[in-house]
Amino acid sequence: MNASYSEQKPGLVTAIALMALVSGIINLFWGFVASATALGTVVGVICLPLTILPTILGVFEIIFAAKLLSAQPQPVQPSPAIAVFEILTVTFGNVFSLIVGILTLIFYNDLTVKDYFARINGAAPIMPSAPVSPQPEPVIESLPEIVEQPEQPEKPKRTKKVAGK
């Protein structure tokens, strides 16, 4: 890919990459501090696998950000899973990653971001569909048909026969 292609990177994609990079670095340090703290107690040693999770997320965030920030774009899919895990790090007390995860999910829904990811992955660009105005059905003006009911002849009245006449 040529250098002019990288200039077409939307600002929101750069924002996603930078936020993921900073959040990844914070999660690395957060995980190291949590793990070091956990090693100080017996219960913490048992909980050590839980304290490593922010560190693992931080590594994935840094790799994802590096792919997005590279001079020559690499085919990479948007990663809502990383954004969701960033949101879940609030359970470890990391509010910054919570905010980054929410913003990332919002930015993924932007049409320019979707179009950029479609282009670097070789898919057809997503074109915004113009709202289709429903065409009104043709109004057929018809006069109400007056159907005349044929008059039914009245039933002849029965005359009572008088006995004896």
Give your account of this protein's structure.
With 165 residues, this protein is an all-alpha fold. It has a domain at 8-120. Helices cover 56% and strands 0% of the residues. The protein is built from seven helices and no strands. The protein has helices at residues 3-6, 11-38, 42-46, 48-69, 80-88, 95-108, 111-120. α2 (11-38) runs antiparallel to α4 (48-69) and α5 (80-88) packs antiparallel against α6 (95-108). The radius of gyration is 36 Å and the shape is elongated.
Keywords:
165 residues; mainly alpha; disordered N terminus
Please outline what is shown here.
The chain is mainly α.
Task: Walk me through the topology.
Blueprint: H1 3-6, H2 11-38, H3 42-46, H4 48-69, H5 80-88, H6 95-108, H7 111-120
Total E-strand runs: 0
Structural class: mainly alpha
Helical residue percent band = 55-70%
Distance between the termini: 121 Å
Q: What is the radius of gyration?
A: 36 Å
Mean of residue pLDDT?
A: 82
| Strand content range | under 5%
Order of SSEs = HHHHHHH
